[in-house]
C-alpha cells in the first residue's frame, strides 16, 4: 500500500525519447530528460518488470527493475 516512484533520467542532444515499459507494454512515452512512473498505493498486481528506454537518433539505452509487491 506504500507509494512507489520509479524515475528515469537521460541526457542527450537531441533530447531523448524516454519510454516506460511494463512487462513489454509501453506505459508512458515522452521526449524529455526525466520520466517517472508513480504507483500511489502499490499492490501485488503492480509487480512486474519495468524497463526505461532512452533513445534518440544516436542510439538507445535501457535499464530495468523487477518489482514484487507483497
From TrEMBL:
Identification of the protein by name: SMP protein
Domain (Ig-like): residue spans on this chain: 1-70
Record InterPro entries: Ig-like_dom, Ig-like_dom_sf, Ig-like_fold, Ig_sub2
Primary gene name: Smp
CDD domains named among the record's database cross-references: Ig
PROSITE patterns named among the record's database cross-references: IG_LIKE
Gene3D superfamilies assigned: Immunoglobulins
Amino acid at each position: 500500500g506504500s507509494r512507489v516512484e520509479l524515475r528515469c533520467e537521460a541526457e542527450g542532444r537531441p533530447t531523448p525519447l524516454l519510454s516506460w515499459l511494463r512487462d513489454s507494454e509501453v506505459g508512458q512515452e515522452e521526449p524529455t530528460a526525466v520520466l517517472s512512473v508513480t504507483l500511489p498505493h502499490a499492490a501485488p498486481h503492480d509487480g512486474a518488470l519495468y524497463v526505461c528506454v532512452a533513445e534518440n537518433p544516436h542510439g538507445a539505452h535501457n535499464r530495468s527493475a523487477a518489482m514484487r509487491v507483497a
